[in-house]
Amino acid sequence: MRYVLKITTRYFTVFICGLLFFVICVGSAPFYAYSQTGSSEVDARRAELERELAELERQIEGQRTLVLKKQQEASSLKRDIAILDAEIKKAQLGIKAREITIGGLGTEIVGKNQKIGQLDEQAEKQRQSIEALLRKTRELDSMSFVEIVFGSETLSEFFKDIDTFEVIENNLQISFETLSATRNVTESEREVLVAKRTEEIELKQIQELEARRIREQEVEKAHLLSVTNGVEKVYKKVLESQEKTAAQIRAELFTLRGSAAIPFGEALLYANLASQKTGVRPAFILGILAEESNLGENVGTGTWTQDMHPTRDRPVFEYITKSLGLSPDNMPVSKKPGYGWGGAMGPAQFIPSTWVCYGGFINTITSDCNNAKRTLSWDAFWQGPWQYEASKDKIRKLAEKASQSNPWEPKDAIIASALLLSENGADKGGYEAERLAALRYFAGWTNATKSAYAPYGDDVMKLATKYQHQIDILSGN
After folding, report:
1. What pLDDT is recorded for position 339?
2. What burial class does residue 320 get, using C-beta atoms within 10 Å of its C-beta: 0-12 exposed, 13-18 middle, 19+ buried?
C-alpha cells in the first residue's frame, strides 16, 4: 500500500511539474512567436507602405499645385493640355495611393487574422491544461491526508508536495486570468478587423470615382488634340465654337437628384438667393449639387425601412414626411452603400438627422439639437417625440416662404445646402476654403482632411469653375 501511494504521489508531482512547464512556456509560445515575428513583419510592411503613400501624396499635391498655377495663366492650347495632363497624372497617382492603402489594409487584415487564430489556439491549449489540472486536483482530493503523508518517502518530500500544490493553485489562477485577457484581445482584434474592412470598401468606392474621371479627362484631351492637331489658331476657334450664349445657357436643363429637371436659370435663381442669405458663391452651390447628383449608384432608389439608419434617422424621417403630408413609403431616398447607411433625401442629399436640425423640428424633451446632449444621449434624442415649430425652421426663413421647408423641393434643398456649406466655412470664399467645405459636406469635419476623400473636393471645384463660366456669360462678364 505504501509503495502504491508513493508511486501515485510521485506520478502526480512529476505530472504537475511537467504540465505547469507546458502551461507557462509552451502554451504561451504562439502568442510570443507572433509578437516577435508576425507582428514585426506586419509593422515593417506597414512602415514601407506608409513611406510609399507619403511620397505619392507629395506628388499628388505637386500636381494639384501645378493645376492651380496653370489655371491662372492665359488660355492657350499648351496651358489647357498641361492642365489636363496634370489632372490625369494626379488622378492616376490618387488611384495608386488608394491601391497602396487598400493593400496595406489587406496586409494588416491578414496579420490580424493570423493573430486571432493563434490567440484562439493558445486559449484552447490553456483550457485543456486547466481541465487536466482540475482532474489531478480532484484525484488528490480523493486521497486522505494520512495516505498522502505515508505516500512520501520523507516528511520533507511531503512539504515539497504541499508547495507544489500551492504553485498549482497560483498558476491555475494565472491561467484563468490569461484566458480572460486572451478573449478580450481577440474581441478587440475582431472589432479592428471589421472597421478596416469597412474602410477598405469605402476606399474602393472612391477609387472607382477617380477611374471614371480619368476616362473622361483622357477623352477630352484626345478630342482637343484630334480637332486642333496642335495648332493654336484652330484651338481658339474650337473654344469659341464651344462657348454657349446666354440664351443657350438659360435653355439648358439642370438636373437635380430626387426632383424633376428644372431650367438652369431657375436653379441659378435659387443659388443666388441662397448666396445672398449665406455668403456662399452661387457657382460653388451648384457645383455641390451637381456632384451629389452624379455620385455612385445610390440615386433615390432606396427605401427608408431598408437603407436608413434604424435608430438615428428612421424615427425622424417618419415624422418629417408625415408633417409634410407625405407617405414615408413613397418618398425616394438614397440606397445604402457597402460602407455605411443610406437614406439621404432630395437634391442636396440631406440625411434626416441633419435636416431635422435645420428644418424646424425639436425634440419635446430636450428642445433643439444644440441642447440634445445636455439631457439625453444621441440615441435617445433621435427617438423623439418630435414637434415642428415654424420659428425654428431656418430653411423656411431663408427661403422666405410661408410653408414648411421640404427636402425634396429644389429651392429648399439648394438653400439648405448653402446653409450647411456656410457653416462648413465656404462663406469665407477662395479655392481652399470652398474645397474644404465641400469635403466637410461629404465626409464630415473629422474625415475632411483625409487624402482618401480628396477626389470629391477636386471634382466639386471643377464643376464650380464650369458653372462660374456660365454665370459670367449670363451676366455679360
Report:
1. 60
2. buried
Give Cα separations from 358 to 368, 389, 391, 406, 434 (angstroms): 10, 11, 11, 11, 21
> How many whole angstroms separate alpha carbon 299 and alpha carbon 361?
26
Residues 6+ apart with CB under 8 A from 219: none
Tell me what pLDDT residue 6 has. Answer: 40
What are 66-80's pLDDT values in tens digits? Answer: 777 876 777 777 888
User: Could you tell me the CA-to-CA distances from 344 to 298, 313, 385 in Å, in that order?
Assistant: 9, 9, 21
pLDDT band, very low/low/confident/very high, at 288 (cuts 50, 70, 90): very high
Locus of grid cell 495611393:
97
Decide: 357 and 325 in contact? Cβ < 8 Å.
Answer: no
Burial of 291 (0-12, 13-18, 19+ CB in 10 A): buried
Residues 6+ away with beta carbon under 8 Å from 417: 274, 285, 288, 289, 347, 348, 441
Position 331: which residue type? Answer: M
Residue 37 and residue 43: Cα distance in Å, rounded? 10
Q: How far apart are CA 455 and CA 206, in angstroms?
A: 8
The DSSP symbol for 333 reads B
* Cα gap 376→190, rounded to integer Å: 30
Alpha-carbon distances of 406 from 235, 346, 352, rounded to whole Å: 46, 9, 11
Amino acid making up residue 164 = T
Q: Is 328 helix (H, G, I), strand (E, B) or coil?
A: helix
Residue among 330, 360, 359, 334 nearest 346 (CA): 334
Phi, psi of 253 (to 5 degrees): -90, 135
pTM of the full structure:
0.65
Dihedral sign, CA of 414, 419, 420, 424?
A: positive
Q: For residue 320, give the C-alpha cell.
A: 418629417
Which SS3 state, helix, strand or coil, does residue 262 take?
Answer: strand
DSSP line for 342-407: B--BTTTTB-HHHHTTTEEEEETTTBSGGGHHHHS-HHHHHT--EEEEEEEEHHHHHHT-SSPP-T
Residue 10 confidence class, pLDDT cut points 50, 70, 90: very low
- C-alpha dihedral, 87 to 90 to 91 to 97, nearest 10°: 180
Rounded Cα distance, 25 and 18, in Å: 10
Cβ atoms < 10 Å from Cβ of 396: 21
**Element spanning 44, H or E:** helix 39-71
Residue 294 CA to residue 442 CA, distance in Å, equals 13
Q: Please state the rounded mean pLDDT for residues 454-464.
A: 88
